[in-house]
Amino acid sequence: MKKFIMIFALTGFIVTGITQVVNAQTEQEQSQAAPQEKSEFKSIDLTDLPEDVKTAARENDAAAVILSAEVKTLTTGDKVYRVNLKSSAKGEYALKFNADGSAYEKE
Questions:
Q1: Cα angle: 66, vertex 69, 75; to 5 degrees
Q2: Every domain of the chain and the residues it spans
Q3: CA-to-CA distance for 18 and 20, rounded, in angstroms?
Q4: What is the pTM of this model?
């Protein structure tokens, strides 16, 4: 009977230890897989929007009007610009660009 209780107790300790290790690994994986974006978009004046981004937005829809712009800094230091546009064909919509005017694609 004592052996049974001892085995039962040891099994409980082992399961608890394994669970803690698995949870720690899961939390670490989630933190590594987190997006590279460290902050939310912040409004900026259209005068602060890079020319390459303005040009790319106009090339995407020549009839669109740029309503507003926002910027977000990634953990890498790169900036992503969200441009809010309005056109008669598409209504209001937003596009994201890198500072060089290329389309932003989240990795």
A1: 145
A2: 1-34, 42-98
A3: 5
A4: 0.63
